[in-house]
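Quick review question:
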């Protein structure tokens, strides 16, 4: 098994697209974007997302993207958001999500940014991961996306 964590660059836009589409197909209720919406995004959209200023990380296992996560910092914000956390079913339980989360939190801390994320109600595996890493509920809940009965809970890294 050859495992690599890659920080996505503009040259990796198709890898980002492929892993994102796979994640949406596997876990449609974990993301604000639907699979249909993501499938309609242009190559230019994926290139721009891949060349953003905050990291998007992908775990490659024998060259295949099996886990991902990213960070996003709104303009003029002292808080960054971790987003897009996903691990392929065949790769779960190997610690990939924990490693990605640690790397993303460290990136935020190196920039003196607070860290928040959203977790879909009912996703207890992800919620446990975040709690073990020091995240706590802010008490803020919002709809997953328009038209969905599911909600997401905002968690913030404790200080």
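Suggested answer, residue by residue:
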């Amino acid at each position: 098994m050859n495992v690599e964590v890659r920080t996505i660059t503009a040259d990796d836009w198709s890898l980002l697209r492929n892993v994102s589409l796979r994640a949406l197909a596997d876990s449609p209720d974990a993301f604000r974007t639907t699979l249909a919406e993501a499938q309609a995004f242009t190559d230019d959209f994926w290139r721009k997302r891949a060349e953003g200023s905050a990291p998007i990380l992908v775990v490659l296992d024998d060259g295949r993207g099996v886990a991902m996560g990213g960070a996003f910092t709104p303009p003029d914000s002292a808080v960054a958001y971790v987003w897009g956390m996903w691990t392929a079913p065949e790769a779960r339980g190997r610690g990939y999500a924990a490693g990605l989360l640690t790397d993303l939190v460290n990136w935020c801390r190196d920039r003196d940014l607070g860290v928040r994320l959203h977790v879909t109600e009912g996703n207890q595996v992800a919620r446990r991961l975040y709690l073990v890493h020091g995240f706590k509920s802010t008490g803020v809940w919002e709809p997953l996306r328009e038209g969905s009965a599911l909600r997401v809970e905002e968690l913030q890294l404790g200080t």
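Why it works: The domain at 3-157 is CATH 3.40.630.30 (Aminopeptidase). The mean pLDDT is 95.
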